[in-house]
Design a protein that fits this description.
single chain; 271 residues; mainly beta; Porin; 14-stranded antiparallel β-barrel; 16 strands; globular
Length: 271
């Protein structure tokens, strides 16, 4: 399977530069990644930087995804989010791959809220490494926003790689446009829908649902179109944080599993 990763890397540098999905979190993964408009939690650093200002507390977050069909293609992420009178700040790291091929990211983000709207900016230093091909580095900037139209409806939008970065001449990283809606009625399920467009790629359509089973447990499901993916998972709430588990079936890569956990730092701010 390492040969598969090497072939993917060669294609990466000889066709057009692509990056793996860096959106992490068991909650989002179980909802088909249709989470851009509902991501005001500890995973916001990897979902929508504009949602950071809606997080209820400072936190530490960790996530790990396993892809059994592709050894060496697992993903790991960690982040810390903290709130201040100047706004909400976050820093995080992401890694994909192994010693044959890997992508590493160091990122920092800032978000501020005015009324029912928040905006955020995220800066990423990305390193691409392949055995025998050397190391290449890129700097990208993401922007995002979140607005609570009503207590039930939330809308989010953003652009990944807004600065149109490249790793070399003619090897541009993808520009990704995302928009989403979230609906949560009192004592009802959370429903989400999302559209994602990578330039020169088909439109991706996502949907997700989260249902509270009790004060401590939640169940989730979701889907992707282009490519087709069906997802599901559970979550558990604790006084000091959250634990989330997700599984997905991808039409190309088969089954994946993801787990994430967050720890609340201090007391919720009440935002």
């Amino acid at each position: 399977m390492h040969l598969v990763l090497l072939i993917l890397f060669v294609a990466f540098f000889n066709v057009s530069a692509q990056s793996v999905n860096t959106r992490m979190g068991g909650r989002a993964a179980a909802m088909g990644q249709a989470f851009f408009a509902a991501s005001a939690d500890a995973s916001a650093m990897f979902q929508n930087a504009g949602a950071l200002a809606f997080c209820e507390s400072s936190s530490v977050f960790f996530a790990y995804e396993l892809t059994p069909s592709l050894p060496g293609a697992n993903r790991t992420a960690a982040a810390v989010t903290w709130q201040s009178q100047l706004g909400t700040f976050a820093a995080g790291t992401f890694r994909f791959g192994d010693d044959i091929y890997s992508e590493q990211i160091l990122a920092g983000a800032y978000s501020n809220r005015i009324g029912d709207t928040s905006l955020g900016l995220k800066a990423n230093v990305i390193q691409y490494r392949a055995d025998g091909f050397g190391i290449r580095t890129a700097f990208t900037v993401d922007v995002g926003g979140l607005t609570r139209i009503t207590p039930e409806w939330t809308v989010g939008a953003g652009i990944f790689n807004v600065n149109q970065a490249s790793i070399a001449a003619g090897e541009d990283l993808p520009i990704i446009l995302v928009g989403g809606l979230g609906w949560k009625a009192p004592d009802g399920p959370l429903l989400t829908a999302e559209l994602e467009k990578r330039l020169e790629s088909p439109l991706r359509i996502r949907g997700g649902m989260e249902v509270d089973l009790s004060r401590r447990a939640l169940v989730r499901t979701g889907f992707n179109l282009h490519p087709l993916m069906i997802t599901g998972g559970v979550g558990f709430k604790f006084p000091i944080g959250f634990m989330d588990f997700a599984t997905a079936y991808h039409e190309i890569f088969g089954f994946t599993c993801q787990a994430s956990a967050s720890y609340i730092i201090g007391k919720p701010s009440g935002l």
